């Protein structure tokens, strides 16, 4: 059982409410999102006044997992995972749109003051405004401690200067959480970082150009430039110089959402491959009658269902606030995203020439899957997290793995 203590640790609880909720999200995805996917791909845009966003607001999909006292719909980590999965099955970019908000509300709910929670979380949870998480920089992605953005204190205000990169949702965000160095780097590199709540309408905030990444058309990231942005002291999120904890805690919580996105991508790619293999004939035989195709489909389903179970388990562990949840979330993110990439690639191969035709909507799953292996902590970072947790469990201390 190592590193777990009991077979009961592997329990996954899924209620009837979870299944009813899934059906409502699937209905939204199939009836609203599906008919807009090709337009989203073509224009690389999901307008705030689009039918999809308006309906998502009505259904409360932007507030799942957020307590009702802060304007959310309530619910647990599994419900949020189901949302990500069912939406990504049809349109991974829309799942990324939803996820960007949670990278803002999650640190607010964990580290924010009561005043901050009441001011900033409800409008985001209700879909009245959007928000984003601005931490990544050109020279600091997985290495959170490597950020160069600075925040200099002047009286009761901080002056922020820097450049953020690959910020999902920045172009539609009203609010950002922004990391900056408030103290110079020391031997303990993680110290000296502080998070701030920034209104994008503050003087000096500029949303830069969209970054044309390989996938997620419709919700591609932007650059954010901070030029002498004055932020009041009450906008500090958490403790001064301890923002590293804000960052890693946020990513630990958000990792299950990315795993669920990947499960949805794999599910969508698998369904397309299976349906195509039934309808497409060569030499007067359906593709599925060929052993080479049938075995690929079987392997795809095995890995898809394993990834789903691991992701649901991680969501349950988070809901139980188990200390092992961080490792399990890394396991889920690592496996589900790599399964999504593999299943999407096999789906293209089963489709043959039709698989690389953008109109068929198969190749976009692979483009989107590749991104899930990178954001919210690249997969090799997940491997490091897993092994470090194993070592810590035995030795009671950390060990450097480079």
Automatic annotation (TrEMBL):
Domain Acyl-CoA dehydrogenase/oxidase C-terminal: 241-390
PANTHER family attached to this UniProt entry: ACYL-COA DEHYDROGENASE, ISOVALERYL-COA DEHYDROGENASE, MITOCHONDRIAL-RELATED
SUPFAM superfamilies (alphabetical): Acyl-CoA dehydrogenase C-terminal domain-like (SSF47203), Acyl-CoA dehydrogenase NM domain-like (SSF56645)
CC cofactor: FAD
Domain of life: Archaea
Statement: the UniProt record of this protein carries the keyword Signal: no
Keyword annotations: FAD, Flavoprotein, Oxidoreductase
Family that this chain belongs to: Belongs to the acyl-CoA dehydrogenase family.
One MF annotation (Gene Ontology) recorded for this entry: acyl-CoA dehydrogenase activity
Species in which this protein is naturally found: Acidianus brierleyi
Domain Acyl-CoA oxidase/dehydrogenase middle: 133-229
Protein name: Acyl-CoA dehydrogenase
A UniProt-annotated Pfam family: Acyl-CoA_dh_M
InterPro entries: Acyl-CoA_Oxase/DH_mid-dom (IPR006091), Acyl-CoA_Oxase/DH_mid-dom_sf (IPR046373), AcylCo_DH-like_C (IPR036250), AcylCo_DH/oxidase_C (IPR009075), AcylCoA_DH/ox_N (IPR013786), AcylCoA_DH/ox_N_sf (IPR037069), AcylCoA_DH/oxidase_NM_dom_sf (IPR009100)
Residue ranges of every copy of the Acyl-CoA dehydrogenase/oxidase N-terminal domain listed in the record: 15-128
